[in-house]
Amino acid sequence: MTRLFLCDDEEEILIYLKKLLQRRGYQVETFLRGADLLARLEGRGDEEVGLILQDVRMPDLDGLQVLRRVRKLAPEIPVVVMSAFGAIDDAVQAVKLGAYDYLTKPFPKEKVLGVIDNALEHRRLALENRELRDRLSQQAATGEIVFRSRRFREIFDLTLQVAGSDANILIVGESGTGKELIARLLHRHSPRREKAFVSLNCATLADNLLESQLFGHVRGAFTGAIANQKGLLEEAEGGTLLLDEVAEMSPAVQAKLLRVIQERDYTPVGTTRARSADVRLVAATNKDLHREVAAGRFRDDLYYRLNVITLALPPLRERPDDIEPLALYFLRRFAAKQRKEIHGFADDALQRLTEYTWPGNIRELENVVERAVILTRTQLVDNDALPLLRPAVPTASATDRPLVALEVVEHRHIAEVLRQTGFHKSRAAEILGISRKTLDRKIAEFGLADTEG
Ligand SMILES: Nc1ncnc2c1ncn2[C@@H]1O[C@H](COP(=O)(O)OP(=O)(O)OP(=O)(O)O)[C@@H](O)[C@H]1O
Ligand SMILES: [Mg+2]
């Protein structure tokens, strides 16, 4: 007989569910407090537990906290969470933490039984297919880079082209455009690939901590330095060091970094002996570093040293062709992770995704798709699973807008005229004041397609 654990702080719910599930032939144990559930799991030995049904809002311990510990204690047991009506974000959060599925209160009995049967059946299959699943998740971990646009193809090719040299590289791009991904690609294709890739976020640490992280320190160098600590430069020796959000680096650390580049050596905090350094530096920033230099916040000599080659990642709204393949890629990944059979997006959902301007770029798209996969119970993601994604109201005045290449403005404008004319090419050509032939060439060049159908 399959054993189920139920945990909820409302006794009536436990009684109702217990009766229902016992009648279906399950053996049921109930818990009023998260702590009791955890204690029982800890002491279960090799008793088989088929499934756990738990509330995400409980008074004694936060339900999500309980879920985290349950997943640690018993990763093999599927968990279905129950959330209050309208508290869909709790459910989404729970599934992200590894819950198999969710039920929203109040729940009719067919729904409860359906979700539980499903979870148990999937667990059976999952055990059978464990090997296959391991393979799938490994694939996802290799960091595939997905794109279709010509704009991104250029950056991708340039990355591979400069990977072989030892030049320092500056990667610029808005938040979420894939700077770290490109830095890793650069490393993987460089002669240093067998050595470490180390990443340091310069924005998250106070000045003195950043220095000791980067250069290391010896015991007693400052209060709290209780042991020798290797610096990231040493860890990255022979490999690549990514200095993420480099614009946030203080003038003092900037000066020391410059020395690393010029003299190829540095001094760990608390010592006087210099160590030599052999690392390739890749710096990333979402700021206009040139402007930071002009404003006196970033050393110009360091800027020129770091910026031997620039890789400028375009924001997603400037390469709308990439939205669809990226969305499908994330859909496949998250569907495999959630063990769901979802094949794609409904037309209206795809349209909503491609028309949005994505201020948070690919990271935002990734989050939206993950949430949609969690909320979808059919084979296609439709608009109901997507947030509203209203195009942002432009608030920046013309002079505050980031400066872009003429080509970008041209691309945007042609796309807009085509959209407004319903892809009526001769009308669009007339409005744009160019010939039909020129327009056709531009359409091919920018990869503009009639997405309205
Ligand atoms: N072309 C791509 N193909 C697949 N996944 C991508 C692509 N570009 C970005 N991603 C994914 O989007 C997310 C954000 O990318 P990444 O962390 O590299 O961006 P970032 O520019 O460093 O962002 P931030 O400025 O916020 O640190 C990551 O999960 C990354 O794997
Ligand atoms: Mg990053």
List the helices and strands and how they pair.
Elements: E1 3-7, H1 11-23, E2 27-31, H2 34-42, E3 51-55, H3 63-73, E4 79-83, H4 88-96, E5 101-104, H5 109-128, H6 130-141, H7 150-163, E6 169-172, H8 179-188, E7 197-201, H9 207-215, H10 232-235, E8 240-244, H11 251-263, E9 265-266, E10 275-276, E11 280-285, H12 289-294, H13 300-306, E12 309-312, H14 323-337, E13 344-345, H15 347-355, H16 361-375, E14 380-381, H17 406-420, H18 425-432, H19 436-446
Parallel strand pairs: 1-2, 1-3, 3-4, 4-5, 6-11, 6-12, 7-8, 8-11, 13-14
Antiparallel strand pairs: 9-10
This protein binds adenosine-5'-triphosphate (ATP) and magnesium ion.
What is the helix tally? 19
- The share of residues in extended strands comes to 5-15%
Based on helices, strands and strand pairing, what is the structural class? Answer: alpha/beta
- The percentage helix is 40-55%
Radius of gyration: 27 Å
- Give me the count of strands: 14
Looking at the structure, the CATH topology of the largest domain is Rossmann fold
CATH homologous superfamily of the largest domain, by name?
Answer: P-loop containing nucleotide triphosphate hydrolases
Query: Could you name the CATH class of the largest domain?
Result: Alpha Beta
Strand order of the largest sheet: 2-1-3-4-5
Largest sheet: 5 strands, parallel
Mean pLDDT: 88
- Straight-line N-to-C gap: 54 Å
What small molecules does this complex bind?
Answer: adenosine-5'-triphosphate, magnesium ion
Domains (count): 4
- Stretches with pLDDT under 50, minimum 5 residues: 136-142
